[in-house]
Specification:
The protein is mainly alpha-helical. The protein has a domain at 5-43: Histone, subunit A (Orthogonal Bundle), CATH 1.10.20.60. 37% of the residues lie in helices and 4% in strands. The chain has helices at 5-14, 21-39, 73-78; strands at residues 83-84, 87-88. It has a two-stranded antiparallel sheet. A hairpin with a 2-residue loop joins strand 1 (83-84) and strand 2 (87-88). Helix 1 (5-14) packs across helix 2 (21-39). The longest helix is centred in the N-terminal third of the chain and has 19 residues, at 21-39. It is elongated and about 70 Å long. The model has no long low-confidence stretch (mean pLDDT 91). Belongs to the GatC family.
């Protein structure tokens, strides 16, 4: 498969890009070089290779959920910039 100047003009039109003749020729050459490089993948022997979504196996590295006591409210409020009625007071986000 190769890209023609007509293809570049079509895509440029879809993207609403105004390209000069020099740019059209340059992009045609560059896109064809990319496709030629990608065609090298067809030479690889992939028989017996299982399809994957990731190159490395994914492992859940999160800890197990375990129930435990929360911090006492007094200790939590020590870190709060401001406190009112046992709750953390923050600046209003609505006027």
């Amino acid at each position: 498969m190769s890209v023609t100047i007509k293809d570049v003009e079509h895509v440029a039109g879809l993207a609403r890009l105004a390209l000069s003749e020099e740019e059209k020729e340059r992009f045609t050459e560059q896109l064809n070089a990319i496709l030629k490089y990608a065609e090298q993948l067809n030479q690889l022997d992939t028989d017996g290779v299982e399809p994957t979504s990731h190159a490395m196996p994914l492992v859940n590295v999160l800890r197990e959920d375990e129930r435990r006591e929360s911090l006492p409210i007094e200790k939590v409020l020590l870190n709060a910039p401001d406190e009112e009625d046992g709750q953390i007071k923050v600046p209003a986000v609505l006027e």
